[in-house]
Amino acid sequence: MYAARSFRPLLALCGLAAVLSSQPMPAQAASPAAVAAQTPVSNRTLANRPDFAAQMPGEINPKAIREVHWKTKPLYDVPLMNADINPSTITILGPAEATQEQMIAFIKKHNAHPKLNCTVEDIVNFYYQEAGREGIRPDVALCQALKETGFFNYGGDVAPNQNNFCGLGALGNYHEPGHSFATPQLGVRAHIQHLLAYARAAQPSLPIVDPRYWHVVRNRPDLCGKVTKWTGLNGTWAVPGKTYGQDILRLWQQAQAPDASEASLHAANNKIKKAPDEASAYTYRGIVLYNRHDYQAALADFSQALRFAPNAGDGYYNHALAATKLGDTKTAQKDYDTLLKISPKLTQAWYNRGHLRFEKKDYDGAIADMMQLLMLEDHSAFARNLIGVAHIQQKKYATAWTDFAAAAAINSADMNILANQFIMEACLKQK
């Protein structure tokens, strides 16, 4: 018997709404880490997230599955600043370049409702206080926290109430929740102290609250005080983490990008007047125009930047973004083809090209690009999710079911993945 089209998907959406609206307060008797350790990983961020069978528990209703809309992460659409600084030269120690106001706006732009036990303004201030005291770059350290927590959205082994912003003690595939801290500021302090263990031989100026500090000092002489650059964290802080430091620095650059204001446009025009033959000036103005939704003018500036710097990966990336906004996906895909030969480790480019291939019904091509992305970043839940949706289109339903399960195991708080699991379950034949 087939379920009515309008009824079962509606039940799926109702189930998703129930998960979102009925989150019980965590028990307070034990420490947050102890509570998290006793909680399945899938429920550490969404307490009422349901369990789904490991294997597809029935047959698909072909009519129902043809008539539903699947959820994927949208294309990345934030332009890149000129890569005029070699990431391998950026030190962990140093002053901030982004202001607190820029960091606050950057966080809120990406997550309007971060799962924090304080305000966004507070968490930013804590990073600037704690990192500034020890000589760590506070803006970059905060970007590391944004990468680790998904802009404070969580969804992995660490629960939001642990105030653990950098995965301290979380062992990845072992699903250990890691350490907990009584307040957000102590969690920030522990993060900064752990960075100090890598970057400086001298001890922190305040009493040590990082439970892993002495482990690095005593057991890792190859690391203690010797990892002075953010890219030096590749494969050490994060494993395999092939582009871990670069990803952090890319967020840092994005946080400093110009906005759509008249002041930014005025500054951009002045840059071009002063340096009319420099790609960086046209990139800067192109980003301002892009943020003002003047995509045609932005495309012209990005094209000009490419004339002055024809081998700049950021130039092709920005050109592709503007072309996509104008509906010219053919040009965008050509840009990505060129870009990925120049910058094969740019995960955003693999995702965007794969998504464009998916939209053109090149499902094998989309899956191939997501697999390339996963070789660089194996904890990419949205790549796994897109693979699942592509397998749906290929009618490989049992494979798609396990794809969604694998994506959820990486990030249980991703609403696109959860929605797809609900929808697919609703598309099963009724027994």
UniProtKB/TrEMBL annotation:
Q: Which GO terms describe its molecular function?
A: amidase activity
Signal peptide start and end residues: 1-29
**What name goes with this protein?**
Tetratricopeptide repeat protein
Enumerate the Gene Ontology biological process terms: receptor-mediated virion attachment to host cell
Query: Highest taxon of the source?
Result: Bacteria
TPR repeat positions = 279-312, 347-380
Keyword Repeat present in the record's keywords: the answer is yes
Q: Where is the Mannosyl-glycoprotein endo-beta-N-acetylglucosamidase-like domain?
A: 126-254
